[in-house]
Amino acid sequence: MKGRVFVVAGSDSGGGAGIQADIKTITALNGFAMTAITALTAQNSLGVAGVLKSPPGFVADQIRVTLEDLGADAVKTGMMADAPIIEAAADALEEHAGGVPWIVDPVMFSSSRDLLLDEDGSQAMKARLISRAAVVTPNMAEAEALSGRPVSTVADMEAAGRALLDLGAGAVLVTGGHLGGETITDVLVTADGAEHFESPRIDTPHTHGTGCTLASAIATGLAQGRGLKDSIIRARGYVIEAIRRAPGYGGGHGPLNHAHTVKE
User: Fold this and answer.
1) Could you tell me which of 62, 58, 70, 7 has the C-alpha nearest to residue 33?
2) In the chain, what percentage of residues exceed pLDDT 70?
3) Which of 74, 127, 166, 174 has the fewest beta carbons under 10 Å from its own?
C-alpha cells in the first residue's frame, strides 16, 4: 500500500459516488484513504432525495485530527455542500496539508442534474480551492458554470480550462462524457497547452460516480509519486474498465465496478 489520500466530500447512501466511490477507488489502486465528510445524502441511482450538511467546524475537526496524526500525500475534494464548509475546510487544509497537491473535483450537479452547490458556494470554491489546486476535474456542465462561458464543443472545453487556469489552478482536466458521439474526449489544459485523451464511448446508463472515481484515481497516482499525465492515463483506464464491468444495479444511472482490480 502506497500513497495517503485525504478526501473531503459527501457521502452517497447508494454507494456509487462520493466518499464511498473515493474509498473504493483509492483502495483498489493500492492507496490509503482518509476522509472528512461534508454532508450525508439520501440518494440512489435515480436521484438525490435529501442532503444533511455537516457543521463546518466539525468538517475542520475531521481534517485537523486526521492529518495531525496520519498525514497525507495528496488531497481530493468532492461535494463541498456550501460556502461555510468550503471556507472551514480550506483553512484546515492550508494549515495541515498545504504542501501536498490538491485535486479538486468541483461537484456542482449530481448525475441526475440535482444542484449540489449554490452560487455562494461556487464563488468560494473558485477563491479557496480552485485557486490553489494542482488539478481541477470539472465535467462540461461544471466547467461552464465555473468559467461563465458556454461549453458544448472540445474547443469550448479548452477555453474553459484556460479560464480556470487563470483562477490559479495548476492544471485542468475537463471531462467530455456529456458530449455526444462515439468517442469521449477529455481535455487537459496546462500552462504548456492542451492535450486530448480519447476513448470509445461505452453504451451504458451505469455511469454514476465517474467524476468522483476519476478524480480520486488521479489523486492516488499523484500521492504515489506518478506524474500528472501518467496518473491521468491510469485513472482513465481504471474508470473505463469500471464502467465496462458495472454490475447493473439500480433503475437509473447505476454504479461502477470499483473492485475490478481485486483478484478473486
Assistant:
1) 7
2) 99
3) 166
Q: What is the mean pLDDT of residues 117-125?
A: 95
Q: What are phi and psi of 234, to 5 degrees?
A: -65, -40
Q: Which residues contact 66 (CB under 8 A, 6 or more apart)?
A: 6, 34, 35, 36
What pLDDT is stored for residue 58 in this prediction?
Answer: 98
Cα(56)–Cα(239) distance, integer angstroms = 31
Which tens digits make up the pLDDT trace of 205-240? 999 999 999 999 999 999 999 999 999 999 999 999
DSSP string, 152-207: -SHHHHHHHHHHHHTTT-S-EEEB-TTS-SSEEEEEEEETTEEEEEEEEPP--S--
Q: Which amino acid does the sequence have at 100?
A: V
Instruction: Find all residues with CB under 8 Å of 12, minimum gap 6, and list them.
Output: 18, 19, 20, 21, 41, 43, 209
How many CA atoms, within 13 angstroms, populate the side-chain half-sphere of residue 160? Answer: 28
**φ, ψ at 79 (rounded to 5°):** -60, 120
Pick 4-259's CATH classification: 3.40.30.10, 3.40.1190.20, 1.10.10.10, 2.40.160.20: 3.40.1190.20
For residues 14-38, give the mean pLDDT: 98
Which residues are within 8 A (CB) of 32 and not within 5 positions of it... i.e. 6 or more apart? 1, 3, 4, 5, 26
Nearest to 197 by CA among 214, 217, 176, 225: 176
With cell 464548509, the residue in question is 85
Distance CA 178, CA 141 (A): 8
CB 23, CB 243: distance < 8 Å:
no
Of the pLDDT bands very low, low, confident and very high (cuts 50, 70, 90), residue 111 is: low
> What predicted TM-score, i.e. pTM, was given to this entire model?
0.97
